[in-house]
Amino acid sequence: MESDEFIFALNPDPTKQGVRIKRAKYDLVRAVILGNLREYGPMTFTQLGELLEEQLQEDFDGSVSWYFTTVKLDMEARGELRRVPKSKPQLVTLP
Description:
single chain, three-stranded antiparallel beta sheet
């Protein structure tokens, strides 16, 4: 049974507002992001998103890409991951 507890996901852009999402979904997506970055190293935003889609598509209720983007932005705001400066396409890595 999924918990009804929520978390406020931050946005690293101070001009944008964060959103409330279910903690269980946040924790799952965060764990998969961290696991993939630890296993494979820096990845493009697109590569990481496609990997999450593949890994979560069967058991995830909701838009994997929306949750991925939301959780990734929150993790950036909290310093848990970062964008590699001046990388094109955008590379995501652990600090």
